[in-house]
Design brief:
With about 190 residues, this protein is of the alpha+beta class. It has a domain at about 70-180: NTF2-like, domain 1 (Nuclear Transport Factor 2, Chain: A, Roll), CATH 3.10.450. The chain has helices at about 1-10, 15-25, 30-35, 70-85, 85-90, 95-100, 105-120; strands spanning about 120-135, 140-160, 160-175, 175-180. Strands 1-2-3-4 form a four-stranded antiparallel β-sheet. A hairpin with a 2-residue loop joins strand 3 and strand 4 (about 175-180).
Length: about 190
């Protein structure tokens, strides 16, 4: 009913201008029509605008510094999370193959908690880091490309004594850095 009334009143010029003026307060101008309001031409009523509306010039914001995705830094972070008992975060750092072999995140957390009761990682120190073009995991019969091979020294605390263990760790590339091939230990 209101639309029918407005359509009949639209034929009158005075009411048409009034409706356009009121509607203009509640709508935005089209992008191509906006430029005519950015500058006022003096002396020439039909001249094009002198300048268009531009946002103020600001300095580009510097993105945050990326966290180190070096393979050594990744392994150190993985061991720090283990030491702190933050197993949920460790789960996201596992390669897909390793996650599948664990079965579920709950199983991973359960086993990691049991391992931390038996022996704790006191310190991990990364020695040599090599990127190898192709590496085959003989135990799981899988081949990976562009793998980081790390020589890592772990200091473990088991009850009242400390042990030093040397291991070779392999990290596989991922979109946002590296993933570790931390598989469950064979029974």
């Amino acid at each position: 009913m209101i639309l029918a009334l407005l359509s009949q009143l639209r034929g009158w010029q005075v009411i048409d201008r009034l409706v356009n003026k009121i509607a203009g307060h509640f709508t935005t101008w089209p992008a191509d029509d906006f430029a005519r309001f950015t500058a006022t031409p003096f002396g020439q009523p039909s001249a094009a605008p002198v300048s268009s509306a531009q946002p103020p010039v600001t300095r580009p914001q510097k993105p945050p510094e990326p966290s180190s995705i070096a393979p050594g830094a990744f392994e150190i972070r993985f061991n720090r999370l283990q030491r702190e008992g933050r197993y949920e975060q460790m789960w996201s750092m596992l390669a897909e193959d390793a996650q599948r072999s664990w079965g579920s995140e709950e199983k991973f957390i359960e086993v990691m908690e049991l391992q931390s009761d038996a022996a704790q990682v006191v310190e991990a120190e990364v020695g040599a880091v090599n990127i190898v073009p192709e590496w085959t995991d003989q135990r799981h019969n899988r081949t990976y490309r562009n793998v980081a091979r790390l020589a890592v020294r772990y200091r473990l605390k088991h009850e009242y004594r400390e042990l030093t263990v040397y291991r070779q760790v392999h990290l596989v590339p991922a979109a946002d850095g590296w993933r570790t091939l931390c598989y469950p230990q064979a029974s």
